[in-house]
């Protein structure tokens, strides 16, 4: 066969010959080790096929099934990092088979997770940390949208699946298509632009992004960072349906709803089953129409019945109203009469209670007045009793008998008057000593002056009665001697002291006690007839008055000065006790 005119290339060669030469040439390349990430693993009966990819390129690989099963690594997942050893191989094909090139793998080792999956996981965590997974899910979705936007491939099966899902819902709205490539390096920017265009249309209420199944490498365009950020900021909710239910892209995480298939996405875009809703609405309309007709018929029958005899109905109602009016009037009169009776009865009871209360109040007032008078009298009597007790105590304190009970004696003359001075006592022929339990009579000094000489001449002593007290030179009664003994005479020293005008010891004690008694009278309050204390008399009034001869007036000397202790024990007690008068 002739070649192309003017061409300097050798040939032409038959295709089979050239394919065989190419096969030999490729197999002659040096066998090497290659590493990359596995995508699109498929297992056949004789061989397994997969692709090794990285950021710079891709290489189709094949391996005999028997050699792969010996490794016992199981099916390789997309993104697995592997190292393979082998060389280039070429299948020339035939008239009925297509040629193919592959890297024939003889040995394989799994190295771990690939860089692409690690980058994808890092991007997912970063978008989640920025809060880009929530905005779409917070947008409200219409239950029955009128316009739906769809981004998918123009000739793919996803388009037919979306339309089938909408027809199954019985939806009759409008679909706005945004066709874009869904598998290559230009797919992500194109999908982003279509989403922005559909979101700019105000009529579009929801957007569906659909694509059929494939490997992770085929779906990697839907993991683009720019695409995910754009979807997160759209005002329209986006429903994602990329791949099958086992596939998971970043767009599924960012979208408002992630569906497993395009059909499921169409049903999620229209939550209401329009066919069922129409049937239900038609049933409700029929029931409403039936009930309406029935109500109209019932009202018409009622109006017809009322229109036949309106006067009869009016008369019957008038009679019933008159009867009710008469009953109301009778009931009102009965109620008024009963009310008047009850009011009169209550008024009578209240009047009786008021009268009883007045009488009780008057009796209580009288009783209170009587009690007040009794209390006042009791208080007056109590006050008078206290005054009487106080006066009695005062009189008792001034009673001379109490002084006599303490050992003092009262000297009285023949006429019964008290002797208050020694001079008067010397002049009396007979003296009477008054004690608390009786009286003793003795002779005075004037009656006994001549008696000692006569008795001395006869050599006899003056007889004394048993228990009779001998008079002292000072006029006081000497202590009584026991029965059977003679009372001693007054000593000559006492008589001489009396003649010389000197005071005896008893007189000196009486004179020393007089100022204390005067001070006691001044200090003690005098009580009046009403029980109140009278002011003390001045000291000048309480002092005894003196006569022209320099002697004290007996009438002015205090009563305590007139009393003299009858015994030595009484005098000692008088010296120790406080003076009362």
Characterization of this structure:
- The protein is an alpha/beta fold.
- The chain has four domains: 15-113, Beta Barrel (OB fold (Dihydrolipoamide Acetyltransferase, E2P)), CATH 2.40.50; 131-271, Succinyl-CoA synthetase domains (Rossmann fold, 3-Layer(aba) Sandwich), CATH 3.40.50; 316-358; 402-576, no CATH class.
- The protein is 46% helix and 17% strand.
- The protein contains 18 helices and 16 strands.
- The strands form four sheets. It has a five-stranded mixed barrel. A five-stranded parallel β-sheet has the order 7-6-8-9-10, with helices on both faces. A four-stranded antiparallel β-sheet has the order 13-12-11-16.
- α4 packs parallel to α8 and α5 runs parallel beside α6.
- The protein starts with 14 loop residues before the first helix and ends in a 5-residue tail after the last helix.
List the helices and strands and how they pair.
Blueprint: H1 15-27, E1 32-43, E2 47-53, E3 58-64, H2 65-71, E4 80-91, E5 100-113, H3 115-129, E6 147-152, H4 157-169, E7 174-179, H5 187-200, E8 206-211, H6 225-232, E9 238-242, H7 250-254, E10 257-258, H8 262-269, H9 274-308, H10 310-397, H11 400-405, E11 408-412, H12 422-427, E12 430-435, E13 438-443, H13 451-458, H14 492-499, H15 505-523, E14 526-527, E15 533-534, H16 539-542, H17 559-562, E16 563-565, H18 568-576
Parallel strand pairs: 3-5, 6-7, 6-8, 8-9, 9-10
Antiparallel strand pairs: 1-2, 1-4, 2-3, 4-5, 11-12, 11-16, 12-13, 14-15
Helix pairs in contact: 4-8, 5-6
């Amino acid at each position: 066969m002739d070649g192309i005119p003017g061409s300097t290339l050798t040939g032409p060669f038959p295709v089979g010959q050239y394919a065989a030469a190419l096969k030999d040439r490729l197999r002659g390349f040096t066998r090497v080790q290659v590493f990359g990430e596995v995508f699109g693993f498929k297992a056949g009966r004789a061989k397994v096929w997969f692709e090794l990819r990285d950021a710079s390129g891709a290489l189709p690989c094949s391996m005999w099934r028997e050699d792969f099963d010996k490794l016992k690594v199981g099916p390789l997942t997309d993104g697995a990092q592997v190292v393979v050893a082998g060389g280039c191989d070429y299948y020339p094909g035939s008239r009925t088979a297509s040629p193919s090139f592959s890297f024939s793998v003889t040995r394989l080792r799994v190295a771990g997770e690939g860089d692409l999956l690690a980058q994808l996981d890092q991007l997912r965590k970063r978008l989640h940390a920025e809060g880009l997974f929530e905005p779409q899910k917070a947008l409200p979705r219409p239950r029955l949208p009128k316009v739906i936007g769809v981004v998918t491939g123009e000739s793919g099966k996803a388009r037919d699946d979306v339309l089938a899902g909408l027809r199954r819902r019985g939806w009759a709205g409008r679909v706005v298509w945004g066709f874009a490539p869904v598998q290559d390096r230009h797919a992500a920017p194109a999908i982003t632009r279509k989403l922005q265009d559909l979101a700019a249309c105000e009529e579009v209420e929801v957007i569906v992004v659909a694509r059929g199944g494939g490997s992770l490498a085929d779906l990697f365009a839907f993991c683009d960072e720019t695409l995910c950020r754009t979807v997160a900021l759209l005002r329209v909710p986006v429903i994602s349906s990329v791949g099958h239910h086992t596939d998971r892209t970043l767009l599924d995480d960012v979208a408002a709803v992630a569906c497993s298939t395009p059909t499921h996405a169409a049903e999620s875009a229209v939550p209401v089953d329009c066919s069922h809703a129409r049937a239900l609405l038609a049933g409700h309309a029929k029931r409403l129409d039936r009930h309406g007709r029935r109500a109209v018929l019932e009202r018409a029958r009622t109006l017809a019945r009322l229109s036949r005899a309106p006067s009869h109905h009016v008369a019957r109602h008038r009679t019933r109203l008159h009867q009710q009016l008469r009953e109301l009037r009778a009931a009102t009169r009965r109620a008024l009469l009963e009310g008047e009776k009850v009011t009169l009865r209550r008024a009578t009871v209240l009047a009786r209670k008021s009268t009883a209360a007045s009488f009780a109040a008057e009796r209580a007032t009288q009783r209170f007045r009587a009690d007040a008078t009794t209390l006042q009298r009791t208080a007056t009597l109590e006050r008078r009793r206290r005054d009487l007790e106080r006066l009695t105590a005062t009189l008792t304190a001034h009673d001379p008998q109490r002084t006599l009970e303490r050992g003092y004696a009262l000297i009285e003359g023949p006429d019964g008057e008290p002797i208050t001075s020694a001079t008067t006592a010397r002049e009396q022929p007979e003296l009477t000593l008054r004690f608390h339990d009786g009286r003793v009579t003795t002779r005075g000094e004037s009656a006994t002056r001549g008696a000692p000489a006569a008795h001395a001449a006869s050599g006899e002593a003056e007889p004394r009665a048993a228990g009779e007290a001998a008079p002292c030179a000072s006029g006081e009664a000497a202590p009584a001697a026991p029965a059977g003994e003679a009372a001693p005479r007054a000593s000559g020293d006492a008589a001489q002291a009396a003649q010389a005008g000197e005071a005896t010891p008893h007189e000196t004690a009486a004179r020393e006690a007089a100022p204390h008694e005067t001070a006691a009278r001044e200090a003690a309050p005098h009580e009046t007839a009403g029980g109140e204390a009278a002011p003390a008399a001045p000291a000048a009034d309480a002092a005894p008055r003196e006569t022209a001869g320099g002697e004290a007036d007996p009438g002015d000397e205090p009563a305590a000065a007139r009393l003299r202790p009858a015994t030595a024990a009484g005098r000692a007690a008088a010296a120790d006790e406080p003076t009362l008068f």
